[in-house]
């Protein structure tokens, strides 16, 4: 069976005069530039409906051949969060005590991270993003997905932006290796853990490292 052909429909997008376009670009930058990775969470609850809406936004991301090769596993169950924390900390302990190179540890030192991950229990929600290497057809055979990491990375970016827009915080946690998440969340063979995003309110009087972002000149090359 070949894939269905989409009918094409008109697309209407609001566009703006040049000055307003500039103002909108500036305003969005100013907003996004207030986003920070936060590692200390409040245990204040966040309604499930908020998380549902954030995930709908994430799932608007473009993807290779529109395969949408992602599953967002959403964990609020305290016992499961505890299991995830224990398994993540076990891996992280080994990483920080021998698996990471001295150079890597030196690069991380200014951020003050370590193997302990209390946010995995304190944050009201954990979103574990899985990428689908392939899909299953109704007969159980495999159907390929394309640019899976790119697609899921973009969806994760949308999700992080949506979290920020809702006045919530997150961090991109990548315990390594991550296969314990496949087991604990009972995921099928075609899914691989990609990122773990705790979501919640920041802890009272939270602090973040005073880091600077590279200026535009350092991150761009122009070919006029
Ligand atoms: N995954 C570990 C280590 C870590 C690695 C990088 I690169 C970071 O930017 C931050 C942490 C951890 O979560 O602590």
Low-confidence residue ranges: none
Tally of separate domains:
1
Strand content: 5-15%
H/I helix tally = 8
The CATH level-2 architecture is identified as 3-Layer(aba) Sandwich
CATH homologous superfamily heading = NADH Oxidase
Main sheet attributes: strand count, strand direction, barrel closure? 3 strands, antiparallel
Biggest sheet strand line-up? 1-2-5
Tell me the number of strands.
Answer: 5
Helix-strand pattern: HHEHHHEEEHHEH
Shape label? globular
- Into which percent range does the helicity of residues fall? 25-40%
Name of the top-level CATH class? Alpha Beta
What name is given to the CATH topology?
NADH Oxidase
Radius of gyration equals 20 Å
Termini, distance in Å?
A: 47 Å
What small molecules does this complex bind? Answer: 3-iodo-tyrosine
Mean pLDDT: 96
Question: Which structural class fits the helix and strand makeup?
Answer: alpha+beta
InterPro entries: Nitroreductase (IPR029479), Nitroreductase-like (IPR000415), Nitroreductase/BluB (IPR050627)
Keywords: Flavoprotein, FMN, Oxidoreductase
GO molecular function: oxidoreductase activity
Domain Nitroreductase: 34-201
């Amino acid at each position: 069976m070949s894939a269905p052909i989409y009918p094409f429909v008109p697309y209407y997008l609001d566009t703006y005069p040049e000055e307003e376009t500039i103002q909108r670009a500036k305003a969005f930058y100013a907003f996004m530039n207030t986003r920070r990775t936060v590692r200390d969470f409040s245990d204040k609850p966040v309604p499930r409906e908020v998380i549902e809406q954030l995930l709908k936004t994430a799932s608007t991301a473009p993807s290779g051949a529109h395969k949408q090769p992602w599953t967002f596993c959403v964990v609020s169950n305290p016992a499961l969060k505890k299991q995830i924390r224990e398994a993540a900390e076990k891996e992280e302990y080994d990483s920080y005590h021998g698996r990471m190179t001295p150079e890597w540890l030196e690069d991380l030192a200014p951020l003050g991270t370590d193997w302990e991950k209390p946010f995995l229990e304190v944050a009201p929600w954990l979103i574990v993003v899985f990428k689908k290497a392939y899909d299953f057809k109704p007969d159980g055979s495999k159907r390929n997905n394309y640019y899976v990491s790119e697609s899921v990375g973009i969806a994760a970016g949308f999700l992080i932006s949506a979290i920020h827009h809702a006045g919530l915080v997150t961090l991109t946690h990548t315990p390594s290796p991550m296969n314990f998440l496949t087991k604990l969340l009972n995921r099928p063979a075609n899914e691989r853990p990609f990122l773990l995003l705790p979501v919640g309110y920041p802890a009272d009087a939270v602090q973040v490292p005073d880091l600077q972002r590279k200026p535009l000149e350092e991150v761009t090359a122009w070919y006029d």
